[in-house]
Amino acid sequence: MEFKQLNVFITAADEHSFLRASQALFVSRQAVGKTIDQLEEELGMKLFVRGQNGVQLTPAGKYFYTRAKALVSDLNDLRSEMSSMWQSQVSIKVCFSEALWSFYSKVIKEYASRNSSEVKIETVVVPEPECEHMLPGLDADVVISFAPQNARNTTTSLVMESSIVFLVRKEDPLAAEDVLKLSWSKRVGRFLLFTGGTDHGLWWPTIPRQGDVCCGSLEELFGTLQTEGGILPLPEFLVPNTLGRLRILRPSKPVDPCRIYCSMLRKHYHDAAKYEQLVRFCDEAVIAETAD
């Protein structure tokens, strides 16, 4: 028994005519008759009495009509609900600081592809200083950045800590050392500092000195390092594995680690479905990636 057969049967019963049913369904009169014959054969009983004035339901046909009508109605409701669920997929907006987007972009795109039927993810990439304005202004649902978001009505979690390493060219005399020996008051060499839009290095404990290079683009700093030399302090997780001309040195004394924070608007800003998707996104994409 198929949905199509039930629909033909109900239409024929409503029209009291196989001919009018065929016209309503845009099929031939013979197709309607054949479908009814197949249905009656499957059930083992007559559903219609044929006459010169059309067709009338038998007692069995009347009972079957009531049940079939309810079943078709339920199936139509189910189709409508499923269609509505697809069309009303949850949309969440995620803000990344510029350096972190290079780290997260692949896993976020893969997560969005796997869950495309349930959630639509919009990403915004901004300089680090702008991240703190995204949640209070309701310009994002989640912010992934190097600084905690302490605004009201937000929840901030420490996602990861990363040790700081130092990159130098292999031709640099420092590359022969096992560790980079640093004096915070009198440093060696020229430092290349990633600022992310601030006026100082994001993970560097002292103020830049004359001759240091401050830049908001990691790509530009990598280029400067490879062509002009210098010392680039960087969180270990941000070091590309394709920089063959460079040497990674570890500091001889402890340096405060870089920290990544995930900040999210609290539940009462969202309906239950949206909040559930936000929590799932943070657990499966943001935290899972940094845990690997």
Which key phrases capture this entry?
292 residues; alpha/beta; Arc Repressor Mutant, subunit A; 40% helix; 3 domains; five-stranded mixed sheet; D-Maltodextrin-Binding Protein, domain 2; single chain; rod-shaped
Description:
There is one protein chain. With 292 residues, this protein is an alpha/beta fold. It folds into 3 domains: 3-87, Arc Repressor Mutant, subunit A, CATH 1.10.10; 90-161 and 259-291, Periplasmic binding protein-like II (D-Maltodextrin-Binding Protein, domain 2, 3-Layer(aba) Sandwich), CATH 3.40.190; 164-256, D-Maltodextrin-Binding Protein, domain 2, CATH 3.40.190. 40% of the residues lie in helices and 24% in strands. It contains 8 helices and 13 strands. It has helices at residues 3-15, 18-25, 29-43, 59-87, 98-114, 128-131, 218-228, 272-291, and strands at residues 48-51, 54-57, 90-97, 119-126, 142-145, 154-162, 164-169, 179-180, 192-194, 213-215, 232-235, 246-251, 258-265. A 5-stranded mixed β-sheet has the order 4-3-5-13-6. It has a 4-stranded mixed β-sheet with strand order 8-12-7-11, with helices on one face. A two-stranded antiparallel sheet has the order 1-2. A hairpin with a 2-residue loop joins β1 (48-51) and β2. α1 packs across α3, α1 (3-15) crosses α4 (59-87) and α5 (98-114) packs across α8. The chain is rod-shaped. The model has no long low-confidence stretch (mean pLDDT 85).
